[in-house]
C-alpha cells in the first residue's frame, strides 16, 4: 500500500511519499519517510517488499557517500541513476534479489531538473511525472489533466495535494501522512506535510461554490 510520487517543473523537482510502515493489518510506524538524500541536489524515493527498499536504499546512499569521499565531488544525477539501475539489475541475476522500485530526482546546474523512473527490473526512463505503489493508479489521471511543463512550485504542490486526497478517498488502507520535498537551484527544501489536517484546512479556506 506504499506510494511515492514525483513531478518535474520548470526549475525544480518535487517528491512526495507516505510515511506509513505496516505489517499485514498492523500499523508499526507513521513517521517512516521513504525519501532519502543522495547529495545536496538529489534525492531518492523507494518502495518495495519488506526491508528491501530500506536495505537497497542504504546500499546506494553509502556507496555514493564513498564516491564523494574518494573523489572529492558528488556523482551526477545521471551517474547515480546508472549506478542504481546497474546494481538493481545485477542483483536480479544473482541469488539475492531486491523487490524495490525507485524515483531519483535532482537539479543539475547544466541540464536543469531531472526525474528518473526505475522499475524493479532495473529499467530506467526520464519522466515528467509519475510514481510507484498502489496510489499511482489514482494519480496518473490527475497528473495528465493538470500537468504543464512550466508549472511553479505552488501549482505542483496543489497537484500533489489532489493526488493525496484521491488516494485517501479510494484506498482501503488510509495513507494518512505524506512528506514532500522540493529540489531546485537552492538545494533541497522540505515542504509542509500533506495530511488530513492540511487537506481539511485547504478545503475550509477554499469552499466549493454552489451552482
Automatic annotation (TrEMBL):
Q: Which GO terms describe its cellular component?
A: cytoplasm; nucleus; proteasome core complex
| Cross-referenced PROSITE patterns | PROTEASOME_BETA_1, PROTEASOME_BETA_2
UniProt KW keywords:
Cytoplasm, Nucleus, Proteasome
Give the family this protein belongs to, as stated in its UniProt record: Belongs to the peptidase T1B family.
The name this protein carries in UniProt is Proteasome subunit beta
A biological process (GO) of this protein is: proteasomal protein catabolic process
Look up keyword Cytoplasm and say if it applies. yes
Pfam families given for it? Proteasome (PF00227)
Its main subcellular localisation, reduced to a broad class, is: cytoplasm
What does the function comment of this entry state? Non-catalytic component of the proteasome, a multicatalytic proteinase complex which is characterized by its ability to cleave peptides with Arg, Phe, Tyr, Leu, and Glu adjacent to the leaving group at neutral or slightly basic pH. The proteasome has an ATP-dependent proteolytic activity. Component of the proteasome, a multicatalytic proteinase complex which is characterized by its ability to cleave peptides with Arg, Phe, Tyr, Leu, and Glu adjacent to the leaving group at neutral or slightly basic pH. The proteasome has an ATP-dependent proteolytic activity.
Summarize subunit and interaction data from the UniProt record for this chain: Component of the proteasome complex. The 26S proteasome consists of a 20S proteasome core and two 19S regulatory subunits. The 20S proteasome core is composed of 28 subunits that are arranged in four stacked rings, resulting in a barrel-shaped structure. The two end rings are each formed by seven alpha subunits, and the two central rings are each formed by seven beta subunits. The catalytic chamber with the active sites is on the inside of the barrel.
Indicate where this protein resides in the cell. Cytoplasm; Nucleus
Which InterPro entries would you find in this protein's record?
Ntn_hydrolases_N, Proteasome_beta2, Proteasome_bsu_CS, Proteasome_sua/b, Proteasome_suB-type
SUPFAM superfamilies (alphabetical): N-terminal nucleophile aminohydrolases (Ntn hydrolases)
Amino acid at each position: 500500500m506504499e506510494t511515492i510520487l514525483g513531478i518535474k517543473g520548470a526549475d525544480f523537482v518535487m517528491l512526495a511519499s507516505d510515511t506509513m510502515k505496516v505489517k499485514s493489518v498492523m500499523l508499526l510506524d507513521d513517521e517512516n519517510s521513504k525519501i532519502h538524500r543522495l547529495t545536496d541536489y538529489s534525492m531518492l524515493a523507494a518502495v518495495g517488499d519488506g526491508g528491501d527498499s530500506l536495505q537497497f536504499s542504504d546500499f546506494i546512499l553509502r556507496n555514493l557517500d564513498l564516491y564523494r569521499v574518494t573523489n572529492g565531488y558528488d556523482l551526477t544525477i545521471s551517474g547515480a541513476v546508472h549506478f542504481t539501475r546497474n546494481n538493481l539489475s545485477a542483483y536480479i541475476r544473482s541469488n539475492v534479489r531486491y523487490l524495490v522500485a525507485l524515483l531519483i530526482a535532482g537539479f543539475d546546474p547544466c541540464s536543469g531538473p531531472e526525474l528518473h523512473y526505475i522499475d524493479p527490473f532495473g529499467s530506467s526512463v526520464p519522466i515528467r511525472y509519475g510514481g510507484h505503489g498502489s496510489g499511482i493508479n489514482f494519480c496518473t489521471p490527475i497528473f495528465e489533466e493538470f500537468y504543464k511543463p512550466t508549472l511553479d512550485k505552488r501549482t505542483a504542490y496543489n497537484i500533489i495535494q489532489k493526488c493525496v486526497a484521491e488516494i485517501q478517498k479510494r484506498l482501503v488502507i488510509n495513507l494518512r501522512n505524506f512528506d514532500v520535498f522540493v529540489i531546485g537551484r537552492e538545494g533541497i527544501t522540505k515542504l509542509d506535510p500533506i495530511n488530513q489536517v492540511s487537506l481539511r484546512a485547504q478545503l475550509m479556506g477554499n469552499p466549493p461554490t454552489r451552482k
